[in-house]
Amino acid sequence: MASTKVYLWLSFMIITQTVGQDIRSEEMSLIPDSKFQCANTTCLPFISVITTDIRNCQFACLGQSQCIAATFHRSTSNCELFDNMLNQNGNVLADVDATSMNVISGTRFPPEWTMTGNMSIARYYHTASALANVSVLVAGGSDRNGVYLNSAELYNPSTGTWTITGSMSIGRSWHTASTLANGSVLVTGGMSSGSFHLNSAELYNPTTGTWATTGNMSSGRYYHTASTLANGSVLVAGGQINGFTALNSAELYNPSKGTWTTTGSMNVIRGYHTASTLADGSVLVAGGQSNAATTLDSAELYNPSTGTWTTIGSMNVAREYHTASTLENGLVLIAGGYNSTSYLNSAELYNSTTGTWTITGSMNTGRSWHTASTLANGSVLVAGGRDGTSYLDSAELYNPSTGTWTTAGSMSIAREYHTASILANGKVLVTGGWDSFSAFNSAELY
Ligand SMILES: *[C@@H]1O[C@H](CO)[C@@H](O)[C@H](O)[C@H]1NC(C)=O
Ligand SMILES: *[C@@H]1O[C@H](CO)[C@@H](O)[C@H](O)[C@H]1NC(C)=O
Ligand SMILES: *[C@@H]1O[C@H](CO)[C@@H](O)[C@H](O)[C@H]1NC(C)=O
Ligand SMILES: *[C@@H]1O[C@H](CO)[C@@H](O)[C@H](O)[C@H]1NC(C)=O
Ligand SMILES: *[C@@H]1O[C@H](CO)[C@@H](O)[C@H](O)[C@H]1NC(C)=O
Ligand SMILES: *[C@@H]1O[C@H](CO)[C@@H](O)[C@H](O)[C@H]1NC(C)=O
Ligand SMILES: *[C@@H]1O[C@H](CO)[C@@H](O)[C@H](O)[C@H]1NC(C)=O
Ligand SMILES: *[C@@H]1O[C@H](CO)[C@@H](O)[C@H](O)[C@H]1NC(C)=O
Ligand SMILES: *[C@@H]1O[C@H](CO)[C@@H](O)[C@H](O)[C@H]1NC(C)=O
Question: What SUPFAM superfamilies does the record point to (predicted)?
Answer without folding.
Answer: Galactose oxidase, central domain (SSF50965)
